[in-house]
Design a protein that fits this description.
By secondary structure, the chain is of the alpha/beta class. It folds into three domains: about 50-205, Alpha-D-Glucose-1,6-Bisphosphate, Chain A, domain 3 (3-Layer(aba) Sandwich), CATH 3.40.120.10; about 225-430, Alpha-D-Glucose-1,6-Bisphosphate, subunit A, domain 3 (Alpha-D-Glucose-1,6-Bisphosphate, Chain A, domain 3); about 435-550, TATA-Binding Protein, CATH 3.30.310.50. Helix content is about 40%, strand content about 20%. The strands form four sheets. It has a six-stranded mixed β-sheet, sandwiched between helices. A hairpin with a 6-residue loop joins strand 9 and strand 10. Helix 2 (about 20-35) packs across helix 3 and helix 6 (about 135-140) crosses helix 8 (about 205-215). The two termini are about 30 Å apart.
Length: about 550
């Protein structure tokens, strides 16, 4: 427990340095209320219980005053740490490109980052306006930058923001770079020691976006059909203008917009969570689709690095495709187009990709969770992760890209449409050829992070012997690493015809359990029974795993 006097001293010192009027007033009110208000005192203590730590490719957290929140003071320190790291690596005059989304404070955080970089003797260039994260990832390599920063919290709730860091290869940071940057951040004693000149930064023009859009041409096959009609939602984010421009270049029919979600809005008023995977997030899209009757529905998350797809269901409704299903469809499409190179995915994604690659005679690789690992696979041609992330043009963007993924899935839908088929027909073909690979997820959001640690400890201390009636044939504690994977906080269970992976989320207060079952199909007549069996097994896996973990 923090000493009250020390807490007040730390908070007052933070307040004295805070460059933001809004968070200064917020913290001043807390300091004034804390002596007589237990709730204010607890809030103040929580904000100074530590500092936000570099996690998945940078920082992410709730907006507000104090070192445990996202604010200008925290961002300035992070930028100073990144600048010091870059200079220590010899990039004394290197270019740092900075992008940002439309969330609260994103533009401020981008300007502060640029000021810190120029104050450190580096060159800073800021994208011209809020743009998709893939544009920033592209711009790093396109401009020959030594690093890039994207200010975004992706699909997190509106109260959050984040700070995603890339190095000059266009990939997100991984160890040991994250730890080295964190050490430089810790070395920043006072904001007064961080020069932040008003001038010196460059605001990039539209030519960077035009170069990105020109690169999207490489995603599609010359002369391929472009007939599929789409409904599109930007989920209150920054994807609309870039996606519409890319679709117009490609010659696809203009997408019908979900009007209520088309324009950027940092409050995300129509959704509880601005994530296409969350219940209810796609309701407005489906309502629009019932009127427009398109061939497919496409959704980006707010920074447009993810892509969700829904297709007409036989009952007149719409079915969301799982990320693993879209991942397999795009892989099959690229194989049919003669793609060469390595296909890669994270360990929590469906093993179907490995079957597709093997059948095509292509190299295949598994990585830890996150595109910071997938993007680093040598010879990468295609990579995906079940959380709606797809890298279909690694030479252009070494990260997930919801714009180019949308183009490629719409091209595939167009080709199938010309043949009188649908995406669901192709999924059935893949199931017949490789077995039905059905996936699901048990995801538990918590307020108290200790519940996640307790669940992981419970599973480690008492390993399940059977799940869904299937024997656990192998149990791996991934904190020890494997022959092909570095250590990570996770557990992997191999069963007869199934696989389970349990891990804490790297970006949200969630425990995530990834489930996969593989059911033989035979011919197409066996598909209904295979789907029924897969659904039964997945439901039983969820039930048994929740009991074993105590969640």
């Amino acid at each position: 427990m923090q000493d009250h006097g020390e807490l007040i001293t730390r908070a007052q010192a933070w307040l004295d340095e805070d460059p933001d009027q809004e968070t200064r007033e917020e913290l001043a009110k807390l300091l004034a209320a804390a002596p007589g208000d237990p709730a204010a005192a607890d809030d103040l203590a929580a904000r100074f219980a530590g500092t936000l730590q570099f996690g998945t490719a940078g920082l992410r957290g709730e907006l507000g005053a104090g070192p445990m929140r996202m604010n200008r003071s925290v961002v300035i320190r992070a930028a100073a740490g990144l600048a010091a790291y870059l200079k220590a690596k010899g990039h004394t005059n290197g270019l740092v490109v900075i992008g940002y989304d439309a969330r609260h404070k994103s533009a401020d955080f981008a300007r502060d980052t640029a000021a810190v970089m120029t104050g450190a003797g580096l060159r800073a260039a800021v994208l011209p306006r809020p743009l998709p994260t893939p544009v920033l990832a592209f711009a790093i390599r396109h401009l020959g930058a030594v690093a890039g920063v994207e200010v975004t919290a992706s699909h997190n709730p509106p109260r959050d923001n984040g700070y995603k860091v890339y190095l000059g290869d266009g990939s997100q940071i991984v160890p040991p770079a994250d730890g080295e940057i964190a050490a430089e951040i810790d070395a920043v004693r006072s904001l007064h020691d961080v020069p932040r000149p008003d001038g010196g930064r460059q605001t990039l023009g539209e030519d960077v976006l035009e170069a990105y859009l020109a690169r999207t041409d490489a995603v599609l096959a010359s002369g391929s059909p472009r007939t599929a009609r789409t409904v599109y939602t930007a989920m209150h984010g920054v994807g609309k203008d870039t996606l519409l421009a890319a679709f117009a270049r490609a010659g696809f029919p203009e997408p019908v917009l979900v009007a209520e979600q088309a324009e950027p809005d940092p409050d995300f008023p129509t959704v509880a969570f601005p994530n296409p995977e969350e219940p209810g997030a796609m309701d407005l899209s489906f309502a629009t689709a019932r009127e427009a009757r398109p061939d497919l529905v496409i959704a980006n998350d707010p920074d447009a690095d993810r892509c969700a797809v829904a297709v007409p269901a036989g009952d007149g409704g719409w079915r969301m495709l799982r990320g693993d299903e879209v991942g397999a469809l795009l892989a099959a499409h690229l194989v049919r187009r003669g793609a060469t190179g390595t296909f890669a995915e994270s360990i929590v994604s469906s093993s179907l990709l490995g079957r597709i690659a093997e059948a095509a005679g292509l190299p295949y690789e598994e990585t830890l969770t996150g595109f910071k690992w997938i993007a680093r696979v040598e010879g990468l041609r295609y990579g995906y992760e079940e959380a709606l992330g797809y890298c279909v043009d690694p030479e252009g963007v070494r990260d997930k890209d919801g714009i180019t993924a949308a183009l490629l899935i719409t091209e595939l839908a167009s080709e199938l449409k010309e043949a009188g088929l649908t995406l669901l027909d192709l999924l059935d073909d893949l199931a017949v050829e490789h077995g039905l690979h059905a996936t699901d997820q048990l995801s538990v959001r918590v307020e108290d992070l200790s519940l996640i640690a307790a669940a992981m400890r419970r599973l480690r201390e008492r390993q399940p012997e059977r799940l869904a009636g299937l024997a656990v044939t192998r149990a791996e504690d991934l904190t020890k690493g494997t022959e092909t994977l570095p250590p990570t906080d996770g557990l992997r269970y191999t069963l007869d015809g199934a696989r389970v992976i349990v891990r804490p989320s790297g970006t949200e207060p969630k425990l995530k359990c990834y489930l996969e079952v593989v059911v033989p199909v035979g011919d197409r007549s066996g598909l209904p029974q295979a789907h029924e069996r897969a659904a039964e097994l997945l439901a039983a896996l969820k039930r048994d795993l929740a009991a074993a973990a105590g969640i």
